[in-house]
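In this supplementary section we document a worked example of the pipeline. Step one takes a protein sequence of length 173 as its only input; no multiple sequence alignment statistics are reported here. Step two produces a three-dimensional model, which step three serialises into structure tokens for compact storage. The input and output of this example are shown verbatim.
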Amino acid sequence: MSERVTPAQAWLEMSRGNERFVQGTPRHPRQDVERRAEVAPSQHPHAALFGCSDSRLAAEIIFDKGLGDLFVVRNAGQVISESVIGSLEYAVSVLHVPLIVVLGHDDCGAVNAAIDSVKPGAAPLPPHIAELLSGSELISDAVAAGTLAVVGANYRLLEGRAVPDVVVGTVHH
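The serialised model returned by step three reads:
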């Protein structure tokens, strides 16, 4: 079993991986036969990622991760549902991930339509993150306890960069 990672350590490693991807110098870590054998008996990812199913942003590629590194939940337009919340609660309570990244992207038709429908007053949190925290006491309690952080980021398709725009919890040392 791997060592416990703090939310800040997990986000730093995600940021570093994305920067390698942006610069065109990915390492493609932990993607070999040995890693496959190592993770076959169990998984210990350092982060969960909830994102859009869009074919242009495969999580493990844009964050330069390998097998067993990320617990990924995706659907079109990042629609919060019971199955999404249940999957993320599993990642937090059973797999003990210290970080959930909610990844949107530019030019997402489904998200833009949802945002346009609720524009009048700017919400304090993006709808996906507010829904996630209000929909899961387990997740909001872990954030309150300091064992989990949630980072909302926007992926810029052309640039390849995941830009954090909201953080709930602590991701800095």
